[in-house]
Amino acid sequence: MFFGGGYPTMIDRFPLPLCPRARHFTNRTVPYFVGEHFSKEWSGGHLKNLERSVEEDYISNLRNNCWKEKLQKEGMLYRARYFGDSDLYERAQRARTPSCAKLSEISASIH
């Protein structure tokens, strides 16, 4: 994602050559990475608005991925029942939904 005035400021969820510096949201432990000139361009209310926007994108992405993980797990369970495949059923039961877990963790920290 690019934000900024005269020259673009790079902001990403993962470290990249253009955004090597790690920051954390004011009220969460979720890291995001920014470019060299980030602190010169962003402060105060603008920084809070930016963090809110980045955090909303992150949570929206987690929701979408959680939905996909649940659908995949439910699909595996359905196929396992339909074909009577006990191995597939066990694998589906053990299938993790990491985005859902992270979303629950974030939701718990909000409340």
Short description:
This protein has 111 residues and is α+β, with helices and mostly antiparallel strands.
Give a count of the beta strands, DSSP E runs of length 2 or more: 4
Query: Order of strands across the widest beta sheet?
Result: 1-2-4-3
Poorly predicted regions are 1-8
Strand % is 5-15%
Task: Please compute the radius of gyration using only Cα atoms.
Answer: 19 Å
- Continuous helix count: 4
| Amino- and carboxy-terminal Cα gap | 29 Å
Structural class: alpha+beta
The main pleated sheet reads as: 4 strands, antiparallel
Mean pLDDT: 80
Shape: elongated
Structurally, how many domains make up the residues?
1
Give the topology string: H per helix, E per strand. Answer: EEEEHHHH
Helical fraction equals 55-70%
Main location: membrane
Subcellular location: Membrane
GO molecular function: Hsp70 protein binding
Protein name: DUF1977 domain-containing protein
Topology:
Blueprint: E1 2-3, E2 9-12, E3 21-24, E4 31-34, H1 38-41, H2 44-83, H3 86-94, H4 98-110
Antiparallel strand pairs: 1-2, 2-4, 3-4
Helix pairs in contact: 2-3, 2-4
Verbal overview:
It contains 4 helices and 4 strands, in the order ββββαααα. It is of the alpha+beta class. It has a 4-stranded antiparallel beta sheet with strand order 1-2-4-3, with no helix packed on it. Helix 2 (44-83) packs antiparallel against helix 3 and helix 2 (44-83) packs across helix 4. Strand 1 (2-3) and strand 2 form a beta hairpin. The longest helix has 40 residues, at 44-83. The protein has helices at residues 38-41, 44-83, 86-94, 98-110; strands at residues 2-3, 9-12, 21-24, 31-34. The chain has one domain. The model is unreliable at 1-8 (pLDDT under 50).
